[in-house]
Specification:
The structure holds 2 protein chains of 2 kinds. Chain A folds into 2 domains: 35 residues; 209 residues, MetI-like (MetI-like fold, Orthogonal Bundle), CATH 1.10.3720.10. Chain A contains 12 helices and no strands. By secondary structure, chain A is an all-alpha fold. Chain B is α/β, with parallel strands linked by helices. In chain B, the strands form 2 sheets. In chain B, strands 6-7-8-3-9-10 form a 6-stranded mixed sheet, with helices on both faces. A 4-stranded antiparallel sheet of chain B has the order 2-1-4-5, with helices on one face. In chain B, α6 links the parallel β7 and β8. The longest helix of chain B is centred in the C-terminal third of the chain and has 27 residues. The chains are: A mainly alpha, B alpha/beta. The structure holds adenosine-5'-triphosphate and magnesium ion (MG). Magnesium ion binds next to α2 of chain B.
Chain lengths: 254, 289
């Protein structure tokens, strides 16, 4: 099947599912009170964008996602490199890392709300805890899996400790970070939205929470659709960045 | 008098390995057997035992031996990448501690930095030595041209063919102008034409500034056609040199032509007589393991 036909079919599938949803709710097979009405959902989205009402909320959610991603990645990179290169520290920290990773970290949201207030920073903190472990484990692995021959070669070519860090360990770790970039950006987004949902005064998660409070199911669906589209756009951006930065890696395209 | 002479001579040698033993500790701990050597745990593998080897200044020495006998291990010890369990390594008369700073090492397997372009790979040694990138790049491009890769400098290793990568590695090592060259089967993956071309290139380079070379190969013909001296190692474990042959064939040599000379054939027969038994022993051990 050619790419255009595939795209058309995918669009048709989307249209068909909306049509089915519309038919089922309009005919009363599914109660509109619980399942919403697609036309009204789309109308709501249109109204949000036309009036510009949605933009401050989207901006806040994006800001939280970005900050959580940046801080989480930086922290994961730093700690991952440090523990990856320091066997004693790694062995010492091992049970704690495992425990913190096993903990369902979304549950920390109320604590962060108490510590950092209901503003941006409590959401960033939640996102950071999600992104950090993702990046940390990848960097840790990346440092451990540097090819011993490449490492020996660099040492024979005269690399000191700082050269090894800069020219061997960091690039190797970065390749692992990039391989998990899609997941970690997604994690940052989840952190932001869940944080907003659990308590905030702004953001798309907050819009959904409010609509839910007044049983406005159409607005809830509108929020979900906007978030989904937003997540897809972020993912496309990540793919673009990946292509730019990872030229040295052989492409294993599907 | 003679002993003083010889100790002076070995002190001046580029590399002197004396009574080197190298034991690899096993990860698994099998039961101890009677007759295990004291100090060597059960299941430990003594790859090299009391091996002595000298490379004089400006000398080209080849080491041949059956596969898995410990050739790379000996080279790694000379490079300072692994410390011997027992024995002493001196480089230009000084005991070796840590990495051998006089040596350039051509690895048996692919050792290029995959995240650097070809030219960056070539100049990375200069960058480590604190040379300015602009200056380094100029020399890098000269070296790329020398190994027949000009115009490929921007490519990453995965975009180069196997043969191109094999040509890039010498440029990466030689740009640093090391006094000693350690080479671990550098041409073994090449086709015969490219191989002879690069062997001749190596001889040209060597005769120009007489680096001291320790060259590992399992190809006896290659060893004879390149070297001043060929050292034969026994099959592992507890490998040690069991034969040494001075190669007195006249230089300059062409590696393809020298193989036809009667002198070459005579040497080949002599060395092969010893090597053959070891190769068969190594092969049988491989089957038994
Ligand atoms: N790090 C290690 N740990 C345990 N055993 C090792 C280690 N490195 C090498 N050996 C063993 O030491 C022996 C010699 O290995 P080495 O790589 O030196 O062989 P080689 O002569 O270079 O072989 P080849 O010609 O195939 O390259 C082998 O039996 C190998 O299994
Ligand atoms: Mg080897």
């Amino acid at each position: 099947m050619s790419a255009t036909i595939l795209r058309v079919c995918q669009a048709l599938l989307l249209l068909a599912s909306f049509a089915l949803w519309q038919v089922l709710t309009a005919s009363g097979v599914l109660p509109p009170f619980f399942f919403g009405e697609p036309l009204k959902v789309l109308e709501k989205i249109w109204q949000w964008f036309a009036s510009g009402e949605i933009f401050p909320h989207l901006g806040i959610t994006l800001l939280e996602t970005l900050l959580a991603f940046l801080f989480g990645t930086a922290l994961g990179l730093g700690v991952g490199l440090w523990l990856g290169l320091n066997r004693l520290a790694a062995t010492l920290a091992d049970p704690y890392i495992k425990a913190m990773n096993a903990m369902p970290r979304v549950i920390l949201a109320p604590i962060f709300a108490v510590w950092f207030g209901l503003g941006v920073w409590s959401k960033v903190a939640l996102g950071v805890t999600l992104v950090f472990f993702m990046v940390f484990f990848n960097v840790f692995q990346g440092v451990r899996e540097v090819s011993p021959v490449v490492l020996a070669n660099a040492r024979m070519l005269g690399a000191g400790r700082r050269h090894l860090l800069r020219h061997i360990y960091l690039p190797s770790a970065m390749s692992w970070v990039f391989s998990s970039l899609h997941t970690s950006v997604g994690m940052a987004f989840v952190g932001a939205v869940v944080g907003e949902y659990l308590g905030s005064a702004k953001g798309v998660g907050y819009l959904i929470l409010q609509a839910e409070g007044s049983f406005d199911i159409n607005t809830v669906f509108a929020g979900i659709l906007v978030l989904t589209a937003f997540a897809l756009a972020l993912d496309a951006l990540v793919s673009l960045a990946e292509q730019r930065l990872m030229v040295w890696q052989p492409r294993h395209e599907a | 008098m003679t002993s003083m002479m010889s100790s002076l001579k070995s002190a001046a040698a580029a590399i002197n390995l004396s009574k080197i033993t190298c034991t690899f500790a096993s990860l698994a701990k099998p039961v101890a057997r009677p007759g295990d050597r004291p100090g060597v745990g059960a299941g430990d593998y003594t790859a090299v035992c009391e091996a002595s080897l000298t490379v004089a200044r400006g000398e080209f020495v080849s080491v041949v031996g059956p596969t898995g006998c410990g050739k790379s291990t000996l080279l790694n010890i000379a490079a300072g990448l692994i410390a011997p369990t027992a024995g002493e390594v001196t480089v230009f008369g000084t005991p070796l501690k840590g990495i051998n700073r006089h040596a350039g090492y051509l690895f048996q397997s692919d050792a290029l930095l995959p995240w650097m372009s070809a030219v960056d790979n070539v100049i990375v040694g200069l960058i480590f030595r604190g040379i300015r990138r602009a200056d380094a790049l100029e020399r890098g491009h000269q070296w790329l041209a020398r190994v027949g890769l000009s115009g490929h400098g921007h490519k990453y290793p995965h975009q180069l063919s196997g043969g191109m990568k094999k040509r890039l590695s010498p440029a990466q090592v030689l740009i640093n102008d090391p006094d000693i060259l350690l080479m671990d089967e550098p041409f073994s993956a090449l086709d015969i034409q490219t191989r002879q071309l690069m062997e001749n290139e190596l001889l040209d380079l060597w005769s120009a500034d007489r680096k001291s070379v320790l060259f590992i190969t399992h190809d006896l013909e290659e060893a004879i056609s390149l070297s001043d001296r060929v050292v034969v190692l026994s099959a592992g474990p507890e490998t040690r040199p069991i034969g040494e042959f001075a190669i007195t064939l006249p230089r300059p040599r062409d590696v393809a032509e020298v193989r036809m000379t009667p002198g070459f054939l005579e040497l080949h027969k002599q060395i092969w007589d010893i090597l053959k038994a070891e190769v068969q022993k190594g092969y049988r051990q491989g089957l038994a393991a």
